[in-house]
């Protein structure tokens, strides 16, 4: 079925790429409008699939639709160049053309937005796509397919191949090795990304990858502590800590450490409510599966065994096996698992540091670099730290940084390429040089 989908995409590619950019734009815009008209139903699908609170799911659908709106507009702005030649009888032209069939492999934590961020750019560029959604969340991808049909996106341009967890490696290998696929776009773990890169190397495919993160959140003595606590709450506990850019470790300077921990604990206990995603007062839904819960438990057990203190939370919630209490740990060190690996759960470990140089050394010791955050009111420090943090995205006095206009992506082992923004469409375009001679 994956191979059939690739052939369908390849067969539809020539006609779609030849459509005037304005016509592709009109269809993408209509797809966006249909998402907005059906936003409540789409949000309910997201909550039913992955458990996130309905309010967050509604926010995801608005974010998801915004990529179709953005790239509908960018479709008409794929500009080439005329470069001055060194001889009078030549002209140098640069054309930008679609790469061809793009295979899109997406995660379960943002089952709608991670599709449109990739597919919007691909279709705007004139590519066709095969989407393999996460095995936990196929319905969002299929719902988007239904709306794409209604929007007039031709058959074969947007294809969905849901599959079981058992079949996922085989389907991924097919998409990465099929010679008709020109481009792979993947969001997921660094470990899986490395496997896909190996598969894609055999046919030298274009690849963009948004992989794992390990985001530091640094609070300097000069910070507004109350604002830092608000940002920490949003950055850490959105989607129950199951986002690739959510904070994984908090580094708090000695002078305000105790104050920050105390206020953060009170905010967690006051603001966060565990429950069903369909309950209006819920801010923390279940984790995606029991394996995710076990990882959080393992990290807490490891930290406590090495001297960390549980300030609040620390165990499974009484609601059921996949629900976990929002947890705050203090007295954490860099030797603990929770500061060495991505958690993907509602666990906030706090480390105390003394100097700016020490905080940067701890933050930059990771092999990945997706997002990073810090709070400071010192202008010179803001410039220094923003430039020296080894991440692709920096939030300065902000805990939520994702936006359709902004380039999303990481450095080191957090991936390759950028999504969203004016740069996102470049991932689906080839540059062709044309030399006109004999003039």
Automatic annotation (TrEMBL):
Pathway: Amino-acid degradation; 4-aminobutanoate degradation
Main location: mitochondrion
The protein's enzyme class: oxidoreductase
EC code: 1.2.1.24
Keyword tags: Disulfide bond, Mitochondrion, NAD, Oxidoreductase, Phosphoprotein, Transit peptide
Catalytic reactions on record: succinate semialdehyde + NAD(+) + H2O = succinate + NADH + 2 H(+)
Cellular component terms per the entry's GO annotation: mitochondrion
Gene3D superfamilies: Aldehyde Dehydrogenase, Chain A, domain 1, Aldehyde Dehydrogenase, Chain A, domain 2
Gene Ontology molecular functions: succinate-semialdehyde dehydrogenase (NAD+) activity
Cell compartment(s), UniProt: Mitochondrion
CDD domains, per database record: ALDH_F5_SSADH_GabD
Domain of life: Eukaryota
Pfam families listed in its UniProt record: Aldedh (PF00171)
GO terms classed as biological process: gamma-aminobutyric acid catabolic process
Positions of the Aldehyde dehydrogenase domain: 2-434
Recorded family membership: Belongs to the aldehyde dehydrogenase family.
Function: Catalyzes one step in the degradation of the inhibitory neurotransmitter gamma-aminobutyric acid (GABA).
Quaternary structure (record): Homotetramer.
Descriptive protein name: Succinate-semialdehyde dehydrogenase
Gene: Aldh5a1
């Amino acid at each position: 079925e994956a191979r059939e989908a690739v052939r369908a995409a390849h067969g539809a590619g020539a006609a779609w790429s030849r459509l005037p950019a304005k016509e592709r734009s009109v269809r993408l815009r209509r797809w966006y409008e249909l998402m907005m008209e059906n936003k409540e139903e789409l949000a309910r699908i997201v909550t039913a699939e992955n458990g996130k609170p309905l309010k967050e799911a509604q926010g995801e659908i608005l974010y998801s639709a915004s990529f179709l709106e953005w790239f509908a507009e960018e479709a008409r702005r794929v500009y080439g160049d005329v470069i001055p030649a060194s001889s009078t009888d030549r002209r140098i032209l640069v054309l930008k053309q679609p790469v061809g069939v793009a295979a899109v492999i997406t995660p379960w934590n943002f089952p709608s937005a991670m599709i449109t961020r990739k597919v919007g750019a691909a279709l705007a560029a004139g590519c066709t796509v095969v989407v393999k959604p996460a095995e936990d969340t196929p319905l969002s991808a299929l719902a988007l397919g239904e709306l794409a049909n209604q929007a007039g996106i031709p058959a074969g341009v947007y294809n969905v191949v849901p599959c079981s967890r058992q079949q996922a490696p085989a389907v991924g290998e097919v998409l990465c090795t099929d010679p008709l696929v020109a481009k792979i776009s993947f969001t997921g773990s660094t470990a899986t990304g490395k496997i896909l890169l190996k598969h894609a190397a055999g046919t030298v495919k274009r690849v963009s990858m948004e992989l794992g993160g390990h985001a530091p959140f640094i609070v300097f003595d000069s910070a507004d502590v109350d604002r830092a606590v608000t940002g920490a709450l949003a950055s850490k506990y959105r989607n129950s800590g199951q986002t690739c850019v959510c904070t994984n470790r908090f580094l708090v300077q000695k002078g305000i450490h105790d104050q920050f921990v105390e206020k953060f604990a009170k905010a967690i206990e006051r603001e966060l409510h565990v429950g069903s995603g369909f309950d209006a007062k819920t801010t923390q839904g279940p984790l995606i599966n029991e394996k995710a819960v076990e990882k959080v438990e393992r990290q807490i057990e490891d930290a406590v065994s090495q001297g960390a203190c549980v300030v609040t939370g620390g165990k499974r919630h009484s609601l059921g096996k996949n629900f976990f209490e929002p947890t705050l740990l203090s007295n954490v060190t860099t030797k603990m698992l929770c500061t060495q690996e991505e958690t993907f759960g509602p666990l906030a470990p706090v480390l105390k540091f003394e100097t700016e140089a020490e905080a940067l050394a701890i933050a930059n010791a990771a092999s990945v670099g997706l997002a990073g955050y810090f709070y400071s009111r010192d202008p010179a420090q803001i410039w220094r730290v923003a430039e020296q943090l080894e991440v692709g995205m920096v939030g300065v006095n902000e805990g939520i940084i994702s936006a359709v206009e902004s380039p999303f992506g990481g450095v080191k082992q957090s991936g390759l390429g950028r999504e969203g923004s004016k740069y996102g469409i470049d991932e689906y375009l080839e540059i062709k040089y044309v030399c006109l001679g004999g003039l």
